[in-house]
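User: Please predict structures.

Assistant: First:
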Amino acid sequence: MSERVIPLVDQRLLALAATVPLQPIATDGLLSDSLGRPLHDLRISVTDRCNFRCNYCMPKEVFNKDYAYLPHSELLNFEEITRLAKVFVAHGVRKIRLTGGEPLLRKNLEILVDQLANIPTPDGAPLDLTLTTNGSLLARKAKSLKDAGLNRVTVSLDGLDDAVFRAMNDVDFPVSDVLDGIAAAKDAGLGLDANGQLTGLKVNMVVKRRTNVDQILPMARHFRGSGITLRFIEYMDVGATNGWCMDDVLPSADVIQHIQQEFPLVPLEASASGETAQRWGYTNAAGVFDPALGEVGVISSVTQAFCRDCNRARLSTEGKLYLCLFATQGYDLRSLMRGADATDADLASAIGHIWHKRDDRYSELRASMPADSASNGSSTARRVEMSYIGG
């Protein structure tokens, strides 16, 4: 049985020092961790606030009117975010994803998008700049974000049935407004590749047993053939407050079986190294993948961990570097950056030193953990919340 855990210690206050090693670490784009994993993706949280209260992320019992969010003075400003992003790009990052909380709540976010979009890469190739949103503000923001330089967007949507969706977001927000946001993103050209094909507009659905399993097929029907990639995410044991237990997890293999009751699928090759989603394509009458019908993806971090290929770092909204979604502590880059004598070379060496030591592989180790530490025991209570560092 799942239970809510209200931590007595605010994990945001815990941090490891980011120190400059005596031996400088070059920004040659070849940075790798202790398990040989490169640094390729950076996820930047721009706010710890959200206007939804999804029970798997920000349950209302914890994130209520008395919850103390980070004050604005604690947050990195856009210039600081861009400065750090430049250092990460010099170390090999080629994809930056803006997250939250809900990132579209951050005022004037288009200014940050413009700054990040203009970061030069060593090889001259443009950054892949994307954003994850609940879609509630996307209809009014899509065009300005595209104009500022955003390439792609991923929208979280946990069902098409309005009653189910309102219950899951727990603020009575209608599904129609999110669908309007997705349509606006498509109209604005978010997700178009160099050939004008819609390949980068995605919708993520977290599947929770006994909650929204009956929405799998309706979601598949709705997005099949639309050019929008639908991805199903296993309900994960992130943070300490969502009451996670394994009984609530519907394995991705079962999701695929649900879809194949109506639509035959064939497995597809990974689109890139380190890709989190396993791809499945809809087939035509001959049983061959038909690109016009599109594809679905499944993200199976509970039942089929992909730690060995993880190339992602996470930067919290006030400048802590986290090396894993399930981390317990981050490294305080803000204090180092705001130090009087900190140079970009110092930041690069500190980040390189941190990444070199990285050995995180929580999801792979989860299966061998005692039951209480893989659900709601003391180990979970030490993990940071997903709303704080992004998904």
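Second:
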Amino acid sequence: MRYSALSIFLNALSGNRRWQPAWREPAPKPHYDVVIVGGGGHGLATAYYLAKVFGVRNIAVLEKSYLGSGNIGRNTTIIRSNYLLEGNQPFYEFSLKLWEGLEQDFNFNAMVSQRGVLNLYHSDAQRDAYTRRGNAMLLSGADAELLDRDDVRRMLPFLDFTNARFPIRGGLLQRRGGTVRHDAVAWGYARGADALGVDIIQHCEVTGIRREGDRVTGVDTTRGMIGCGKLALSTAGHSSVTASLAGLRLPVESHVLQAFVSEGLKPFIDNVVTFGAGHFYVSQSDKGGLVFGGDIDGYNSYARRGNLATVEHVMEAGVAMIPGLSRIRALRSWGGIVDMTMDGSPIIDKTHLPNLYLNAGWNYGGFKATPAAGWCFAHLIARDAPHEVATAYRLDRFARGYLIDERGAGAQANLH
């Protein structure tokens, strides 16, 4: 069923009893052309674009829990393409363009809100760095505006402009950035992929990877063995675990990234705002709560909860930027497991096994990359060649010395 104003009206007349399930609950088949491990945003987007753009229809997406239970539902919903380096900027701009047409593409309201992303700067050196970043963005076709202090004050008068340690001198604004409802992204891609014949199999954990020589032949799961022509791993913070089933050791570490939401408030933050003197970012949801976050917890973990030291660190940075935050209550927090690479940039590549493909290492950037990651991973699987905007995301770049060191946000605490 296609969603529209007419379908809402007609179903209302029938007491809303004719709505179809958004996706099927199929039993796994013995064999698929492509098996994608991971039913999060990237895995579902990969299946959707494989089916729609590249014509591969015999696909299964295997999710060990319920659909969207991982990082796709555990993030701060920010989308942007304000990157500097050649390896990253074209990729994230491609992703932002896909976000702009996503709802019409898969016929689902993902609540894409291009409210603007503002990065504050606090010194002359930081201003010069943002000027360089903005110029790089403009050269790649993205939008960027460098604002002075008065411009920022008119937009966000509640910021602390006179803090002796962190005086706000201006900011870099990308008006096309914003937020998207994270759960709706998973639901929309799942519904679209299902409509194209993709089998989305929930509660199906992969426990082993079968090989004959150097080729993968299938996966062992809690629902039996499933054969495949190609196997794609897209398991976010558990990438090293799933890759180890095939004998791979990845250059990633798994860390918890916490996010928080406050009590509901009247609208006052119209944009996404990031603190330039510390790692803090905040936006306001449609329900009024402030959604915010900061650094990863500085130790390896697979737990979806963080420590109080990081909570304190995030709250301190928030109050330093917006003193009024000290008077509101934080309602809840949650943790997502992210796989951190040594240079802070992702991996989309074939492995040394000819039919095993890897999408991993997204650090802080996984959600905003969802459409482009899915498209580029699908391109790699279908054509055995990288997409032109993802050629730098090779797995062997760490051994070759071709790092994409966007901001030094690797897995080690001293790199943050």
